[in-house]
Every structure is written in C-alpha cells, then in structure tokens.
Amino acid sequence: MSVNHEPTQHPRAHSSKKPTKQQARQSARERLQQERAHHRQAEARRRRIAIGAAITAVVLVGAGIAVAVGTGTGSTGASGPLVVPAHSSGTDGTVIVYGNPNAKHTLDVWEDFRCPICDKLEKTDGSTIQQLADNGTYKIQYHLATFLDDNLGGSGSMDALQVAGAALNESTAQFKAFHDVLYANQPDEQTDGFGNLNTLLDLARKVPGLVTPQFTKAVQDRVYAPWAAKVSAAFNTSGVTGTPTLKLDGKQLTVFDNSGNPVTPAQYTALVQQTTATTK
Asked: How many CA atoms are closer than 13 Å to the CA of 266, on its beta-carbon side?
C-alpha cells in the first residue's frame, strides 16, 4: 500500500504596499490556522491508512492468504547472546535444511507457525512434501516468520520458533517432527495458543526423545529466542510477503487452486515433476 504525502503549502501575500502591524498579525494568524488544518488532514490520512492496512490483513487471512503487513521481528524475550542451534545453515543459522543437503533441487518454504493457511497446506500435502525430500527429489530449506505476532498480537509465532530452535539443536529430524506436531495441533491464530511455553513443552513431548532436562532448560531460559529473532528478521528482508510460499529452484509453485484449497498430493507431485524437468 503506497502512501502519498501532500506537501504543506505556505501561502504568501503579494503586495506593493508595506502591510500594517494589524495586517501582519492577521496574516500570521491565517497562516497558523492553515498550517494546523493541514496537520489535521495529514493525521486523518495516516489514521485511515493504518486502519485500512489492519482491515486488509484480517480480510486476507480470512480469505486464505496471510500477508505480512507489519515488518517487526516479533522479538519478545529475545534478550541475551545469540546462540545458533546446531544443524542450522545460512547467515546466523537462519535457514533450516531438511533432506540431503547435496540434492540437485531445492524447495524453499516460507512459513509462520501461527498461519492457518500453512496448516491447511501441511494437512493436505505435508506428508508428500516431506516424502519427496526423503527420496532425494529435493532438499527443503525452511524460512520461518513471526509476522502474525505483529499483525494479530501475542507471541505464539516467536515462542514456537524459539522452541523449534531447541529441537533443531538436537537434530534436524527432531525439528521436523516438532514442526509437524505444531501444525497437527495448531490453535486458532486469534487465540495465540502457542504463546505459552508450557503448552509448547506439552506438544514437544509428542516427539519421542525430544524433551530432556537440557531441552526443557533451553526452552524455559529462551536460549534460542535471539536466534528466532534473527530468523524472523531474515524473513522480513527476503521479499516474500506472505505464507505459505513455496519456490522450487527459484520458481514459485502454485499450491492452491482458485477456490483457496490446496492442490491434491498427486497434483503437487506432478507440479514438482514438471518444474524440475525444466530446470535440469
């Protein structure tokens, strides 16, 4: 959404006669009144724009498209030194690679753990997306966001991400398993159900062998919160404006039909085959 800023105009009096003191005072009062009017108009425009952006975000989420209107990092609890989880990749470890890192093709996936449309895709195609990574068709590079914390309030995206960082520190497989548990148990995004570390620890217990005293301490101490803020910031500068977004070898995949429903697993597989055939 672009914002047009109209310049404030300062009227000038043109006269061959020197104005009297009374005229000068009158002119100054008029200029002050006009300036105040311009400021009121500008403030009203800013309020309309802010309200319009908020309404747009809610409408788009309801329509099946989550758009990152805000640019904050959702950095709740992100104080402390940067501790990068083991098994992470990229600058500051902000990319999570699942599958054979030497696979010929790369599927980049941008998600927000609070995003209901990501959940929709995961429930329909998640197992197929993983299967094609497991069989070596491509590797998956996860890029995770927290913009729904900014748009809707709360800290669930950031909290889930920092716990996912603790899981990643254990292994990529543990991260992926926890990733899948989060989507299998995703609460309504309006409730901020992930904004509770005890809830997240309960969900982590669904991943065999993940919850240990060391893992629990890392979660409760928010060891990976600064890393999660870095991951979120990397999303905000990626140029990707919504989740889920999937790109195979740099080409965006259309994984929803015109009605907003995810493509079937068979359609997803065919789409991958078609795309990889053109990038050999």
From this structure: 0
Domain that holds residue 32: 20-63
If asked whether residues 119 and 151 sit together in one domain, one would say yes
Specify if 10 maps to a domain.
no
Instruction: Give the Å distances, CA to CA, from 18 to 14, 15, 28, 29.
Output: 10, 7, 15, 18
| b/e sequence 140-170, b meaning 16+ C-beta within 10 Å | bbbbbbbbbbbbbebbbbbbbbbbbbbbbbb
Asked if residue 56 lies in contact with residue 67, where contact means CB atoms within 8 angstroms, the answer is: yes
Q: How far is CA 180 from the centre of its chain?
A: 18
Note the pLDDT tens digit of each residue in 221-274: 999 999 999 999 999 999 999 999 999 999 999 999 999 999 999 999 999 999
Pair 81, 105 in one domain: yes
pTM of full prediction above 0.90: no
∠ CA(90), CA(87), CA(146), 5° rounding?
Answer: 60
Residue with tokens 């927000």: 112
Q: What is the pLDDT of residues 127-159, one digit of tens each?
A: 999 999 999 999 999 999 999 999 999 999 999
The reply to whether 131 falls in a domain is yes
Q: How many domains are there within the chain? A: 2
